[in-house]
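Reading group handout, session on sequence-to-structure problems. Before we discuss, look at one worked example. The prompt was deliberately terse, the way you'd type it at a terminal:

> structure ABC-type nitrate/sulfonate/bicarbonate transport system ATPase subunit

The input record follows.
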Amino acid sequence: MEQRSIAVSIKKVSKRYLHQGREVPVLQEIDLTVPQAAFVSLVGPSGCGKSSLLHLIAGLDEPDEGEIILHGDSKSSRAGKCGYMLQQPLLLPWRTVEENVILGLDVRKTPRKEALEKARDLLKRFGLADFAENYPATLSGGMKQRVALLRTVLFQNELLLLDEPFGALDALTRQTMHLWLQDLWESISASVLLVTHDIREAIFLSDTIYVMSHRPARILQRYDVDLPRPRKIEDLSQEHVIQLEQKIFAQLMEEEKV
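And the output record:
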């Protein structure tokens, strides 16, 4: 079988931050890879450093030790080379849906006509064309997250960093968003690194799950998810999937005791 190329490789990455005059270790010799066009998730205790790792990958900060290799390059700046979506959609209230979707292209000074054509194609393909002229205040929580995801994809669709994008949604909307994101991801063949507290979400969406320890975070375990695609919600009821969920949950509960 042909081996997939690597979108991002994290090698022995450690990070410390200053807090009240002393150094606090947050990440400790993190090793992980995201293959090209793969969906990878990070789960771990609250505050363990998952979001800090995404910041490093996005080029918003630099590791104290180790290296981050993005598309085979460890030397160049990583800033602007991945799409990065936070938990809150952060849509601009004075811009319509399509204007929010093209925000990254506006920053890159893409010609307006070209940017709008790209946005309208995405909106049509993923069921949002009827809302193109709406303002964010008129949208539901799930709709806002869809718009924010499409904005992230349009800005940079080779590597997407998603930080708890569905954490604020109710359970039913979250399930719907999992199916929608699966369709979106499969259509663009992007590499995705998702941070989530939801084990079932990680299992449903991911090819690989990394479980992180309490701070300073280390990688405790890597799991490959044995489910064919496209996936259905009822796949989560399979016995081996339930066992995987229980195993990860038990690891996280042990970490919460630390």
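Points for discussion. First: The chain has two domains: 1-77+160-258, 83-155. Second: Residues 236 and 242 are 7 Å apart (CA to CA).
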